[in-house]
Amino acid sequence: MQDAKKMNLAVDFCGVTLKNPITVASGTFGFGEEYGQFFDLSALGGISVKGLTPHERLGNPAPRIAETPAGMLNCVGLQNPGIDRFITEELPRLRQHDTAVIANVSGNTVEEYCGMVEKISDADVDLIEMNISCPNVKCGGMAFGTQPQMVEEVVSAARRYAKKPLIVKLSPNVTDIAEIARAAVGAGADALSLINTLLGMRIDVNTRRPILSNVMGGLSGPAVLPVAVRMVYQVRQAVNVPILGMGGISTGLDAVEMMLAGANAVAIGAAIFRDPLCPVKALAQLKDYLAAHNIEDVSELSGGVTL
Fold first, then answer.
1. Cα separations (Å) of 126 from 11, 14, 15, 123, 278?
2. Is 32 left (phi over 0), alpha (psi -120 to 50) or beta?
3. How far apart, in Å, are the Cα atoms of 237 and each of 14, 76, 139, 252?
4. How far does Cα 118 stand from its chain's mean position?
5. Each residue's pLDDT tens digit, 173-223
6. How many angstroms separate the Cα of 235 from the Cα of each of 82, 206, 232?
7. Among 110, 140, 200, 300, which residue has the least CB neighbours within 10 Å?
8. What's the rounded Cα separation, in Å, for the pair 30 and 148?
9. For position 136, what pLDDT does the model report?
10. What is the C-alpha separation between 65 and 217, in angstroms, rounded?
11. Residue 269's pLDDT is what?
12. Burial class (CB in 10 A: 0-12, 13-18, 19+), 3
């Protein structure tokens, strides 16, 4: 069995050292303050903060959460205090912990994305994650991440303002995820994160009305893990940049599976709502797996699936 003292858990992600490959996904961890009551946030490899917008957003009206078999739907709607308050109020608190900070930014126009990336580049964050699943208001509300041309436009524009490594978060609601990945990397993405939530819907059979106020929402949780693993695998075959894999990860073995598919690091999301200690438990399970399989460096897992 591998000696835990000789085990290397650190991951180089776009030149940023993550102390381990376990991070938490944007939209599920807020800015960390609540979860700091349960465990030391410095145990994490990184924290991807709640999605930020140019100005404060209150999100969609309730109900905006719905249960599903092996998962959940949400249409929270990017509720956040706005980028300026994040930088002045939330970021200093986050920086008290020894973990990488990934700033997730969203916009409704190319200009908004450029402004967000420029502003957050000057803040004390390690990586920038661009959520391109947002609706482009100039194109009738179609999400930026669903068409290669739109991906190229928004990523290439934002890239000019990025002074920190730029991760582009991909939507799974596309026909060919590899094509979208190639478009993002070709336009200047330093890394990719995937998957974002799958589009879903639930109906109350008694009222015959949609359960969510927004009718449809994003599906996350264990149900989406096989889809996420498949898409990470396809993207790894298509591009050669770091991948932050996410979607349905609940355990350390899920993290191993995602890394074998091609991820360099992983993010845990919806599982945290059920068990706030899930990330640290997953890290312990990952260490146990490495020890049991005599693996000295966690990066050996990445892309290690055997066909």
1. 14, 10, 10, 9, 24
2. left
3. 19, 33, 31, 24
4. 20
5. 999 999 999 999 999 999 999 999 999 999 999 999 999 999 999 999 999
6. 32, 42, 5
7. 140
8. 30
9. 60
10. 8
11. 97
12. exposed
CA distance 186 to 168: 12
Phi-psi region of 271 (alpha: psi -120 to 50; beta: other; left: phi over 0): alpha
Beta bridge partners of 66: 73
- Tokens describing residue 139: 């194109």
Catalytically annotated residue among 75, 134, 139, 278: 134
* Second-level CATH architecture of 4-62+76-201+219-301: Alpha-Beta Barrel (3.20)
Tell me what the mean pLDDT of segment 248-272 comes to: 98
Task: Give me 3's structure tokens.
Answer: 């000696």
Boundaries of every domain in the chain: 4-62+76-201+219-301
Query: Could you report the per-residue pLDDT of 79-111, keeping only the tens digit for each?
Result: 999 999 999 999 999 999 999 999 999 999 999
**Tokens standing for 24?**
């938490």
| pTM of the shown model | 0.96
**Whether 114 is catalytic:** no
